[in-house]
Automatic annotation (TrEMBL):
Organism: Nymphaea colorata
Name of the protein: Uncharacterized protein
TM spans (from-to): 6-31
Keywords on record: Membrane, Transmembrane, Transmembrane helix
Highest classification ranks of the organism: Eukaryota, Viridiplantae, Streptophyta, Embryophyta, Tracheophyta
Length: 62
C-alpha cells in the first residue's frame, strides 16, 4: 500500500526533474559553445602575462 501512496510523489518528482532538465539543457549547451572561446582567451592572456610575471618574480627574488 505504501508503494501506491508514494507513486504519485515519485511521478511528480520525475516530472519536476524533467522540467528542470529542459530548462537547464539550453544553458549547458550555450556554456559549452562559449567555453572554448573563454579558454582560448584565458590561455592567450596567460601567455601574454607570463613574461611579465616571470620578470617580476626574478626581480622580487633576485
Amino acid at each position: 500500500i505504501a508503494i501506491y501512496q508514494f507513486a504519485p510523489l515519485v511521478f511528480l518528482s520525475a516530472v519536476a526533474v524533467y522540467r528542470i532538465a529542459l530548462a537547464v539543457f539550453p544553458t549547458v549547451v550555450a556554456v559549452q559553445q562559449i567555453a572554448p572561446e573563454v579558454l582560448i582567451n584565458a590561455d592567450a592572456a596567460y601567455q601574454a602575462a607570463l613574461p611579465s610575471v616571470v620578470a617580476v618574480w626574478q626581480v622580487a627574488f633576485a
